[in-house]
Design brief:
Number of helices of chain A: 17
Oligomer: heterodimer
Largest sheet of chain B: 5 strands, parallel
Strand content of chain A: 5-15%
Shape of chain A: globular
CATH superfamily of the largest domain in chain A: Trimethylamine methyltransferase-like
Distance between the termini of chain B: 58 Å
Strand order of the largest sheet of chain A: 9-10-11-12-14
Distance between the termini of chain A: 61 Å
Helix content of chain B: 55-70%
Number of strands of chain A: 19
Shape of chain B: globular
CATH superfamily of the largest domain in chain B: Cobalamin-binding domain
Radius of gyration of chain A: 24 Å
Structural class of chain A: alpha/beta
CATH topology of the largest domain in chain B: Rossmann fold
Number of domains of chain A: 4
Helix content of chain A: 40-55%
Radius of gyration of chain B: 18 Å
CATH class of the largest domain in chain B: Alpha Beta
CATH architecture of the largest domain in chain A: Alpha-Beta Barrel
Largest interface: A-B, 23 and 20 residues
Largest sheet of chain A: 5 strands, parallel
CATH architecture of the largest domain in chain B: 3-Layer(aba) Sandwich
Number of domains of chain B: 2
Chain lengths: ~500, ~230
């Protein structure tokens, strides 16, 4: 039996949905001029930039959303399945800072930090997907979004959770993806990446977000709505009220998206949080934030849609017991809720900081969560009686062939990041941070980059040099010259 | 003696109306004060502002919460709506602590923190020009020039929009105003380190601290001799 956690009972689910439909009609949803005609042509009343979406239309469009789809790895294999109760994890996205492994202080992230994180995430099977995890402060801000993607495409074969920072740059990111996939049609057939698109709370699809929804739908590239009601500040203070707002933001986004291209893949996702009434901060580790995530995802599941949430992150500024308690707890709860993509691992300090060391610790919590949802299986015809028949009351189970045959299936073996008493015999043991650092070093050392096809590499590099050059980028930070000079033959 | 005692009681009630976040009470106490011949400036300085100060202090200690503070700010506004016109009639003005231009960064529509800072600054004698939300750096610079601002305060709730605080500093430099205008930044993801990194003059973690910071910046300004070209 697959263990499963739901926070809302059926009547409450129905009430939430009912109120969400009420909200999208009245007061309606603020939308951008870019989508006004699209909505009007479908019979939506748009007045003063506010769309009043009828429930019947929204329900009809919700029916068109694919209940499942896959993201593909570099080799064209479907390795992330959005739909049902499948659970995947990826590192948190778009962070500005990195927790420096040496100084243990946050500092602006640079390309080499992102590369290190990508290499580590590539080596960890807990992460089914990569994310464009950091904004590289050593490249011009205007190319910050696609440059992250270039580095991930260069160093990873996994699917990618990404996003654009503007309406215009979305096309640059899609172009890059198309190059890496061998063309626009190949990308459409086997999407390698999914794009986060964020409405502004409450109930506002900005020009940038509206345009992203439409353009992604038309390009056949999956979109992931990341609605982020902040309970008590930009959303009702009650958890149920914020779940209503989240549902209304998602439904209205889906309306825009499905009108642009019926049947295009889209995910019911979010990064809701409570608003701390003492500090005005938005704690990701608060249990109420986790409850919001779980309840929001449950609403998506109720509608039969693929789901996403932001969990496995914590709020302390350093790697400590608090941050890991929060991250581990929410990773486990998210997995129990059957959320298809759980983003956030590696992040701390209210999502303001990433840490590669934290990522490897989180990976252990994620592995435990994955073991948990694999559940307790009956193996063989007898559960215990047949084994007792062999050993009687002697109890020497260690000698049984069943033990040897099954222990690997029953037990998950964590890496040396988790202290299970293996580390030393003299009573001393490196602390968790030291163990994490060592693990990161080992993973980076054992990482080996696999090249893309030479013509694709050449095209990627030429593209990056051309587009980067326009913004004054010198060289390609994070990409080692030796990795592409010979292969791409750009330098004689 | 009796009158002084009555005044003290009135001031205590005014102070309490702010702490309670009770706009109706704050307003009627202000009207009563005028009827009883209490000078509006005394009502403000000895009644309402100490209330706001208490609120700020309790908030900083984690004993009051943001919704409480919003209610207190509302009560303060209600009292000032009664007293401000009287002050003008009398031709008296509160001594001004400084001129502040406030707004949230480009792309950011979250203004709760900024409203609180504006309220606390106003309560403590600053003249506040609130540009609202989603404000481009150039707009900050233009308004700072128009009102001869001492301080520009820039708020951001999101890590993505926090980056645009830098654009405000740059816009002030471009407009040639940076020497005379101090920049303070705040918002949930903002840190002291970030403030330093983008070349701002200060960061405050909450509205009460923002008042203290603004006072310090004014002091720095008065000590700095700005050489004009």
């Amino acid at each position: 039996m697959r263990p499963k956690l739901e926070l809302l009972d059926k009547p409450l689910v129905e009430r939430i949905l009912d109120e969400a439909f009420q909200l999208i009609e009245d007061p309606g949803v603020r939308i951008a001029p870019y989508v006004e005609d699209l909505l009007r042509n479908a019979g939506v009343t748009v007045k003063d930039g506010v769309a009043h979406i009828p429930e019947a239309l929204a329900r009809r469009l919700l029916e068109l959303v694919p209940q499942e789809f896959s993201l593909y790895d570099r080799g064209g294999n479907p390795v992330v399945h959005y739909g049902g109760d499948d659970v995947h994890f990826d590192p948190g996205s778009s962070c500005l800072n990195i927790l420096d492994a040496e100084t243990e202080q946050a500092r602006p992230a640079v390309s080499s930090d992102l590369v290190r994180l990508v290499q580590v995430a590539e080596m960890l099977p807990q992460f089914a997907a990569q994310s464009t995890a950091m904004v590289c402060n050593d490249v011009p801000a205007e190319i910050g979004d696609w440059y992250r993607l270039l580095l991930v495409l260069w160093y990873s074969e996994k699917p990618i959770v990404t996003g654009a920072f503007s309406a215009a740059s979305l096309h640059t990111l899609i172009d890059l993806l198309a190059i890496a996939s061998g063309g626009g049609e190949a990308l459409r057939q086997h999407p390698r990446a999914i794009f986060d698109v964020c409405p502004s709370p409450p109930l506002n699809w900005s020009e940038f977000a509206s345009q992203n929804l439409v353009d992604l739908a038309r390009a056949g590239v999956p979109a992931e709505i990341v609605s982020m009601p902040l309970a008590g500040a930009t959303a009702p203070v009650t958890l149920a009220g914020s779940v209503v707002q989240h549902a209304a933001e998602c439904i209205s986004g889906i309306v825009i998206h499905q009108l642009a291209q019926p049947g295009a893949p889209i995910v019911w996702g979010g990064a809701p949080a409570i608003f701390d009434m003492r500090t005005g901060k938005t704690p990701m580790g608060a249990i109420e934030t986790v409850m919001l995530d779980l309840a929001c995802a449950q609403m998506g599941k109720h509608l039969g849609l693929p789901t996403h949430a932001y969990l496995a992150a914590g709020d302390a500024r350093v790697i400590d017991a608090q941050v890991e308690m929060e991250s581990g707890m929410s990773a486990v709860l998210g997995a129990l809720a059957g959320i298809n993509m759980i983003s956030g691992a590696g992040m701390l300090d209210f999502l303001a900081c990433h840490s590669v060391e934290k990522l490897v610790i989180d990976a252990e919590a994620i592995a435990s969560a994955q073991r948990l949802i694999a559940g307790i299986e009956p193996r063989g015809e007898s559960l215990a009686v047949a084994m007792f028949a062999q050993t009687g009351l002697r109890g020497d189970f260690l000698k049984l062939k069943e033990t040897r045959a099954l222990f690997r299936k029953e037990q998950h073996f964590p890496s040396a990041v988790i202290d299970r008493g293996l580390a030393s015999t003299d009573g001393t043991s490196p602390d968790i941070l030291q163990r994490a650092r060592q693990r990161v070093d080992e993973l980076v050392a054992s990482y080996e980059r696999r090249s893309l096809a030479p013509e694709i590499e050449q095209e990627l590099i030429a593209f990056a040099q051309r587009e980067g050059g326009k913004a004054g980028l010198e060289g390609l930070p994070g990409v080692l010259g030796s990795e592409y000079v010979q292969e791409a033959g750009l330098i004689p | 003696m009796a009158k002084a005692h009555m005044q003290e009681n009135n001031f205590a009630a005014m102070r309490q109306s702010i702490i309670d976040g009770a706009p109706d009470t704050a307003s009627s106490l202000a009207q009563e004060a005028l009827v009883n011949g209490i000078a509006p400036l005394d009502a403000i300085n000895d009644g309402y502002i100490p209330g706001m100060h208490d609120v700020g202090e309790q908030f900083a200690k984690g004993q009051m919460f943001l919704p409480d503070m919003m209610a207190s700010a509302e009560a303060m506004r209600a009292a000032m709506a009664v007293l401000d016109p009287e002050l003008r009639k009398l031709g008296t003005e509160r001594p001004m602590a400084g001129v502040v231009v406030l707004g949230t960064t480009k792309g950011d529509i979250h203004e709760i923190g900024k409203i609180l800072v504006g309220t606390m600054l106003t309560a403590h004698g600053f003249q506040v020009h609130d540009l609202g939300v989603d404000v481009a750096g150039e707009k900050f610079a233009v308004r700072a020039q128009e009102v001869n601002a001492d301080i520009v305060g820039v708020s951001a709730l999101l890590t993505t929009t926090m980056r645009n605080q830098k654009g405000v500093v740059e816009a002030l430099v471009k407009a040639g105003l940076r020497a005379q205008v101090k920049v303070m930044v705040g918002g949930a993801p903002v840190t002291k380190r970030w403030a330093e990194e983008i070349g701002a003059d200060g960061y405050a973690p909450n509205a009460m601290a923002a008042v203290e910071l603004a006072r310090q910046l004014m002091q720095q300004k008065s000590q700095t001799v700005v050489e004009l070209p």
